[in-house]
Structures are given as C-alpha cells and as structure tokens.
Amino acid sequence: MNTILEPLLTPDQVQLTDADRRAAISKLESAVRQAALTPSQATDRQAQVLAARTRGELRNIMSGVANAAPPRGLTVALQAFTGVWLVACVVQFVVWLALAVLGHFDGPWWLWSDLGLGAIVAILWWTNESYHRKNDVLVAP
C-alpha cells in the first residue's frame, strides 16, 4: 500500500527512474535549443540530474527552466487533497460500518463523496505526473 500512496502523499520523495532522468535531460536539451539555457549550464545540470535520487532534487535542478518540473503549489495541492481524501474515506466508512452494525444499514452512501474527492486527487496526480513524462519544454516566444 505504501508504494501506492507514496506518489500521492510525498511526490517529492519518489525515487527517480531512468525514464524520469531521460525526460529531464531531454528537457534540458530542448531548453538549449530554445536558448533558455546555455550549453554549459545544460551540461552542469545534466550531471546533477544523473546524480539526483528524488523528484524533489530534480525540481531544484530544473528550477529556472519553464515547464520542466511541476510547480511547488501543484505538489502541495496533491498532498493536501490526498490527505483530506484519505481521512474522509476512513471516517465515512467507519461511520457507515457503525450504522450498519447498529441496524441502520443503507447503501454505501460514503462512496459518492469519496469518488468525487478521488477524482480531484486523480486529476492532480495526472497533472503532476505529466511534468515528469514530457520530453520538451515550452518557452514563450
């Protein structure tokens, strides 16, 4: 279960994969082509990317390169909504279970709010992950 929740609760602590590193290096090369970085800056950052271990470290390395890493606010929102979602799921399930034990069994009413919050968490996660999957950066003209 920890491997499922880790990208949601601590997205900056997720270990970098080879695909993450390749995408980051690709973004640095794209930034050089678009004159957002000099070749020497990109080379220095590429060495740092290869040494980085987590996505949080990668965020620091990619700072200053537009659209290369998820904004800090996005990861904070992902963590906050995930925490709220998990607490809501557990509390509502426990209340529903207690009511069922006491003879007031209704359908799983708690699913509606949990699915709604879960959809928000899914959208935030997908957006956060998209920064790690794209291979180029978009620089405003």
From TrEMBL:
TM annotation in the entry: 80-103, 109-126
Keyword tags: Membrane, Transmembrane, Transmembrane helix
Residue ranges of every copy of the DUF1707 domain listed in the record: 16-63
Domain of life of the source: Bacteria
Pfam families: DUF1707 (PF08044)
Protein name: DUF1707 domain-containing protein
Species, as recorded: Kribbella soli
Taxonomic lineage from the root: Bacteria, Bacillati, Actinomycetota, Actinomycetes, Propionibacteriales
